[in-house]
Amino acid sequence: MSESKKVVLVIGAGDATGGAIAKRFAREGYIACVTRRSADKLKPLVDEIIADGGQAHGFASDARKEEDVAELVETIERDIGTIEAFVFNIGANVPCSILDETARKYFKIWEMACFAGFLTAQAVARRMVTRQRGTILFTGATAGLRGAAGFAAFAGAKHGIRALAQSMARELGPRGIHVGHVVVDGAIDTAFIRDTFPDLYARKDQDGILDPAHIADNYWHLHAQPRDAWTFELDLRPWQEKW
Q1: What kind of architecture, by CATH, is found in domain 6-236?
Q2: How many percent of the chain have pLDDT more than 70?
């Protein structure tokens, strides 16, 4: 596979942030490889990128399964191009009182939002270190900095992914790999926010909620940074957001 074909791999390319990141990199000439557990849900994103003149491939893949992850990375590197940028964007923001939380749901949230990040980032990092270059970015949240009431499982997972990012940055930075963690603090312009929290969504006209395209611009900025001035952690929040 020619190394001239540069790939961005987005794990968890949903309708908002993940999809916007894929589109942003595609505009820069990167082949967008995007994943969700259901390939059918990726078709609109892939079609949009292609219609805009970019290249994209969708993959149904379970990021919690080591064999799926290994097959995904091998297929991309063998058949499509070199993974120059990797984004882990699985959320699993599910509120529940610690008094009612079940072991099964707690584990599932950790597995989705933390363990899957380890599996996928490790598989990509093993490829990147052979080339001594690449970018690995994790989507974090305020929950990774402090745990709110009713979000014990989500906070635990997001603390874990932030710690993973910190460790990887210290180990892989000297080997040419830029590892970053992006704290997204605030409501994002999505159909879920629009339909579920109309009062919150009304802030959109005052730039009071996050635009996925603007979030994506910051991911591209991190990837494009010169290595003499790498950012590890970046906070993104609307100007009205309390923090």
Answers
A1: 3-Layer(aba) Sandwich (3.40)
A2: 99
